[in-house]
Amino acid sequence: MAEVTAQTLPPAQQAQAARDLRQDKRQAPAPQSRLEREKADLSKETGAEKSMRLTIEKREALKKKEMQQKAERAKEKAKSDKQTFGEMGKSLTAKALKFSWLNVIDTYGLTLLYIYFHFFGKYVVSSSYFVDFGEEWTYEVNKDSGIKTNATAAKYGEIILLILVTCLLILIIAMILVAILLPAVAVIAAVSWLKGIFGL
């Protein structure tokens, strides 16, 4: 139908053209969805095109499956690495705590610093890299055999021992301070007494 402007047609023909246009719009096929267009395209494919498309789809599916498997393996490896790192940390802190308890006297109490640090790390910060008190004596055996022994008595025994040693250290420090400060106070008192007597 040739395009005709509304100015060249009489009103009756304009109304007829509008009716024809509306009827053409009703008869026109509805726009297809993407899925319908793809189905129509697939029905027009030849055998070679179809086999090539299926081969490409299989490759893409295999690649996707392979990527998922790689991601799962990476997650499992990261999880096992974290567990291995945690076990290594526990093993090292168990050995260090055992060494510290065994050498408290040999080091004149310096290993108590690590014991306090270990106590702080385990019971105040709640770090998983530190073993419980008492486990350092059986940790290697437990790790090798896989059987966990109950070290509750050793745990509370070591904590009580640590409290007693701390009290003893406080008492010793107080005695040293008194031993140093008492003569100093006595000398200061004697000097001020002498100044008072002689009027200096």
Structure in words:
With 200 residues, the protein is mainly alpha-helical. The protein has a domain at 68-180. It has helices at residues 11-27, 34-43, 47-102, 112-124, 139-145, 152-198. The longest helix has 56 residues, at 47-102. The relative contact order is 0.04.
> Beta fraction of the residues?
under 5%
SSE sequence, one letter per element: HHHHHH
Radius of gyration: 45 Å
Question: How many E strands?
Answer: 0
Please tell me the overall pLDDT: 78
Secondary-structure map:
Layout (H helix, E strand, L loop, with lengths): L10 H17 L6 H10 L3 H56 L9 H13 L14 H7 L6 H47 L2
List keywords for this structure.
single chain, 200 residues, mainly alpha, 6 helices, 0% strand
Compact summary:
The protein has six helices and no strands.
